[in-house]
Amino acid sequence: MTEPRSETHVDVIIVGAGLSGIGAARHLKTTCPDRSFMILEGRETIGGTWDLFRYPGIRSDSDMYTLGYSFRPWTEAKAIADGPSILRYIRDTARDEKVEDRIRFSHRVTGAAWSTADALWTVSVETPSGPSVLTCSFLFLCGGYYSYKGGYTPDFAGMERFGGRIVHPQAWPEDMDYAGKRVVVIGSGATAVTLVPEMARTAGHVTMLQRSPTYIVGRPGEDAQALKLRRLLPEKMAYGLIRWRNVLMGMIFYRLARRRPDRVKTAIIDQVRQTLGPDFDVDTHFSPRYNPWDQRLCLAPDGDFFQALKAGSASVVTDEVATFTETGLKLKSGAELAADIVVTATGLKLEAMNGLSLSVDGAPIRPAETLSYKGMMYSNVPNLASAFGYTNASWTLKCDLTCEYVCRLLNHMRRKGLRQCTPVLEGETPETAPWLDFTSGYVQRSIGEFPKQGVTAPWRLHQNYALDLAALRFSGLEDGVMRFSNPVARARQAA
Fold first, then answer.
1. Using CB atoms within 10 A of its CB, is residue 119 exposed (0-12), middle (13-18) or buried (19+)?
2. pLDDT single digits (tens) 172-211
3. pTM value?
4. What are the record keywords, sorted (predicted)?
5. Which residues does residue 329 pair with via DSSP β-bridges, in sequence order?
6. CB count, 10 Å around CB of 36?
7. CB atoms within 10 A of CB 278
8. Where are the domains of the chain?
9. Quick one: fold of 9-148+349-494?
10. What single DSSP character describes residue 134?
11. Interatomic CA distance for residues 305 and 327, integer angstroms
């Protein structure tokens, strides 16, 4: 029997109503129907990343057969989908799964304190009417890994002198008119590779200014085999087959890139050379100094980035900013770039544990002093999990598995009459490694603030869907590290 809802207490609080949070709500509603929950969303709408980012051309850099939820087939033609389509998919899911009424908008979580005696998290929330306090038995962080307050822009010399407009993609203004303008996009990551061809459609000219090259891979925007399979098979069956095909292909490619980096590097650069032709300086602009998957690969659906270069509406300059001038940028080589608009696609600011202030029985949790358990919980932190996706594959693949595991934990505790689950790290701390093994600037700037990972299970972050499938869906919960405690009966006797 479902317990009456409370305005101030629920079994589970989900932080964030984006892709992860809506997925978590559906898993809880379906797998733990006797558990009450609410979603706390700091903004005024559903969508998270896909509502926040409004820059031109915003799209996924993963195929939607794996970025989509396991329980809801992606039915549109585009496999590499635009942001508005993804946002519609998330909102349709929230509506169809009937979880919209569980969301409290404009409720920004700032911190939470765990009490073992009460087996509760006391959650601090900023609301339009002032600070508020809620309680829950389990806290599920689904707010992603970067700050919504603003992106990262280096302190370039002379920015105050520039007579044009400077904008970061995370704070794209509604009134931005770049038609016929000279645009310089600083950066060479996924955002820059998305912006350049889209802006080049109407801008006078777009220049991507990169400090060093990035791997960019062309891929069809539509998956012809997937579309054919969808015509031949029932919707859910086709979706499952396509999803697994893409998962396996991604795993094979990633493993090959790690084991034979020179071979994969040559293949990627040769593809670029073939696309752009013999007269383009591929060695300077598209031959990275690092190996594939030391940073995330950038995707150019239907080769749109390369087509803009070939058409002459866009260009690439590999150099560094010396200073902004009144009319553009002066580079360290001495060259100058004239610009009306400069877009600083220079990265994100990362936040560990959604940037919350957390404590356990009065002791503050310092994320960097914890170890990640199965890539989703933290050493000696009870009843708390984070939804965090893969860096080498689609975000939702790992988040779906994390949601399944959280539901397993909740149901196990209910069956056993226990209120607390804690991944316990005892004795000597094992050998550790950075939480993310990425050389990207946005990672390296913040990685010291994040939890560590161990080099062996269950503290190791696999970045491998097959291994996580075994660890999160099929493995036993009582593995000697996950400790279940705090019986319900004892709590009632004390009362």
1. buried
2. 999 999 999 999 999 999 999 999 999 999 999 999 999 9
3. 0.93
4. FAD, Flavoprotein, Monooxygenase, NADP, Oxidoreductase
5. 324, 337
6. 19
7. 7
8. 9-148+349-494, 167-344
9. FAD/NAD(P)-binding domain (3.50.50)
10. E
11. 26
